[in-house]
């Protein structure tokens, strides 16, 4: 699952002059979000989310005001809410994500939000089905008839359907999607599926692969060092190339640490890895994302900013925005890569990817697609899940997790389902590769970088 943690925005806003804040229209009131099936109530320092469909309204996350326009949830996630030129328009940003969510002021809560929610298995089924019906963008691409599934499964649900039976029904309904951002949660048990032929990037797999890489690919390397709670590894290779392994875009300062702490740890790593001396002498850089469980898209953008001297478009992000029409979306919001302050590496890069490159690992891969200079992708297609994950609560206490966004290239292409393909195909951590103590993708990357001759055009 995508991990979106807390924020540095509160610190930035807290430093603003008080008179400027005083002239901003109040964010108090009721707001409907474009896309996302969400209504917000902001009153007296309390932020309350309502998750809405045509058949339901359930309370979602709540937060308390912690600064001008900022609200912090109990788990430390900080939400930034601002009004726009009109007091009836606004925006909300979840730190660690990219892009804003547009808000429209409405006079009052929908009627369904002011009365008790229906209970029972049938109510849970209807909210579950409707949540996907109104928000999931990819039924057509997946070749799944969601209406036919409702007609097949709903007659199996009745007042005496047990929680275990309902969990099985929900799991069977979403299984054919093979979407790693779709899940059914009931307490500690979670049903989720990855794309066929791929493997979930678990901590166990990450540990196994890292040990293999250190023993074989990096046996003659120098300056091997871990950063960011072990999520980032760097080494200098004998041929003048560098090796940068990133296993996630979160957890840099420990689980649950705010975004500001994650960003600070990342900057400490980048200050060492991409220092002035190294960025000048490197002949090529291998960026290994083959086991990457995702996290914060914003951290990926931040790394990309240390790999260019020229601003460029990383991608544009849009959300499904019509409950009855899956082809309608919010206006795409562009996310740009702007050169970082200080040393930057702008030479050739070989990006290693595979089916265990997931979520923010994929948006980072996408952010490097139009990177100025020589950038080649090697390995296997990524997992094919890019969106932030919506958690939709059900009346019986279970939850459904689903995506509702697309990340678009400059030409308007998305890679949901199929994943981002490599330029050069090589096996990635197969049984045969492990048995023969071989890493074909890594070897191919070194050959490609040597052929580039160390040029930085």
Radius of gyration: 23 Å
Principal-axes shape call: globular
Report strand %: 25-35%
| Helix-strand category | alpha+beta
Helix content: 25-40%
pLDDT under 50 segments (min length 5)? Answer: 1-22
Average residue-wise pLDDT: 92
For the secondary structure, the number of strands is 22
Side-by-side strand order of the widest sheet:
1-2-3-4-5-6-7-8
| N→C terminal distance | 37 Å
Number of contiguous helices: 13
Report on the biggest sheet.
8 strands, antiparallel, barrel
Features:
about 450 residues, alpha+beta, 13 helices, 22 strands, about 25% helix, globular, disordered N terminus
Your description of this structure?
Helices cover 26% and strands 26% of the residues. The protein is α+β, with helices and mostly antiparallel strands. Strands 1-2-3-4-5-6-7-8 form an 8-stranded antiparallel beta barrel. A 7-stranded mixed sheet has the order 11-12-13-14-17-18-22, sandwiched between helices. Strand 5 (70-72) and strand 6 form a beta hairpin.
